[in-house]
Here is the input.
Amino acid sequence: MNVEEQKPTIQYRPVKKADYPIIMDMYAKLNAHFYKTGYRLPHPENVGQVWLDSFQRTIGRYSNAYIAEIGGEVVGFILCRIKRVPMYFGGALIGELSDMWIVPSARRLGIGEKLSRIALEWLREKRVHSIEIQVLLENEVSWKLFNRMGFKQEFRVARLLWEDYIEDDA
Here is the structure.
């Protein structure tokens, strides 16, 4: 490998308030990608702010976000959360890797895996029972990553919109 092909130095750290505008913008890009691939839930206004508001007050206790930087520029983030499943599923605390975005120019550098492992370690420290992920069907790169890390598929999720409902003719 010659000098020009060497991986850049990548720094990882917990998100700070000063990073919020950057990760809100990145989340908006992630969310736009969801809709390009067929995601069918309503699209809220100011989605980055709505997303941030959903976890900001719980950072450090029930959620955490980490960023990756190259040369002081944020190039990716991951959000992890803790939730409790219903008692009929055992009532356990479950970790969730819920959102991750890497800017296109920084992909294929191992950033997604490193961010995932940092988030998993935080969730391990919180003593959650297990970790859940949701990955778009077409996102083979992420499926391969999470499979390599030991994730196993348990069920599929589908959505029916009323305009797609096929009524019984009987």
Remarks:
- The longest strand covers residues 73-84.
- The mean pLDDT is 93.
